[in-house]
Amino acid sequence: KKIPYITENLTQEEIEQTSNDVDNDALWNTIAEDFLFAYDNLPQSQDQVGRADRNAAAAYLAKLRLFQAYEQNDQHQVTNINTSRLEEVIEYVDEVTASLQPDFGENFLDGFDNGPESIWAAQFSINDGTTVGRVSFVTGLNSPNSTALYGCCGFHLASQNMVNSFNTDIAGLPLLDTFNDTDIFTNVDADGTTPPDSGLSVDPRIDHTVGIPGRPFKYRNTVNESGDMIYNFSWARDPGVYGYFGNMKEQQAPDCSCYVKEGPFVGTSKNVDFIRYADVLLWKAEALIQLDRWDEALPIINQIRNRAAASTQRPLDAGATDIYNIGTYALFPSKDFAWKALMFERRLEFAMEGHRWYDLVRWGIAEETLNAYLAEERTKKDFLANAQFTAGRDEYYPIPQREIDFTGGLYIQNPGY
């Protein structure tokens, strides 16, 4: 949280005199200046795909103002929500020209890079004249473990808690308060698969997001008519310790031309989206709810859910047997209900994409959410036995002591350390 803001125009002497003890709001505004310059000077679109444009600048301004709106004290508690900043969020979101990818899963499938939903993405490539291509080995480290189809290392696994969140009620709506009362997909057969739970209905986004034993992985049940692509218990990294759910969003079928294998490691040329239009839309919904205009947020959240409901064909064609049931909200009876629905929708839509932590910290609920999670999960996973989140400290990493020493105390430590 305490960071020095160093620009390319500073001299060495000025750099050495720059402290990290900067007012948080002032720092946000300084960062915003760069985005405002980009917003005012970049074209609406670029001839070369992947280049920064006015769309991306507007989206980043909306995101920045959303985070800035939640004013926090030194203990990272939200003390005020700045409504003027929320109005700016809506203003900049309305300047973004984009649309949702028709099928949710296509956002995470090779061949659909830089689609209508992609606002800003890390661009990767293969067969580009370099030795192995400019591929992402980071996402490759999260590929299924212990299978010849992939390699190493099975990191970034889905938790039981997250899987439970995809369970739906008879109307196809999420179980906002009771989703974690029942663990789903826990009956693993001797062959390493899990049969569908009797009477269970789920949000179809689960079969685009999570590898579940017995389910087709990445919309495939075979590879080149050979090689079983049904996700198996053994594909998980030490399932007895970490559980057996895998990460599917970051992966492709192993015979994809986007893959390169270097020893046990795999990399992929599939882009990684940092901002999807679904994210932008839900920023607006969030701002509207906090501005007491939750009725205007309702159609936005339903738009996201309708797209999810129309995204079942790929897993079904591959042989998925889960019962999909996803509905829309008829109304939001209160601000509190709308807020719960918004928070839950973000979790479902962006599961395994790395946004959840930043949402919790922005909202000031990291401690209550994670300690409630740990209270349950530590009864199931021994490696979490001593896990505890400390509010006012664990929201941010400490400043390395050697950096504080190097600056002669000019840098100060983050709270709690």
Describe this structure in words.
The protein is an alpha+beta fold and 417 residues long. It has a domain at 103-274 and 304-351: Serine Threonine Protein Phosphatase 5, Tetratricopeptide repeat (Alpha Horseshoe), CATH 1.25.40.390. The protein has helices spanning 12-16, 24-41, 54-69, 83-93, 137-140, 160-164, 206-209, 239-242, 277-290, 294-309, 313-317, 335-349, 356-363, 366-377, 401-406; strands spanning 70-72, 78-81, 118-122, 201-202, 210-211, 222-223, 226-228, 246-247, 259-262, 265-268, 272-276, 323-324. It has a two-stranded antiparallel sheet with strand order 1-2. Strands 3-11 form a two-stranded antiparallel ribbon. A two-stranded parallel sheet has the order 4-12. A hairpin with a 2-residue loop joins strand 6 and strand 7 (226-228). Helix 10 (294-309) runs parallel beside helix 12 (335-349). It is globular, with a radius of gyration of 22 Å. It starts with 11 loop residues before the first helix and ends in an 11-residue tail after the last helix. The relative contact order is 0.14. The mean pLDDT is 94.
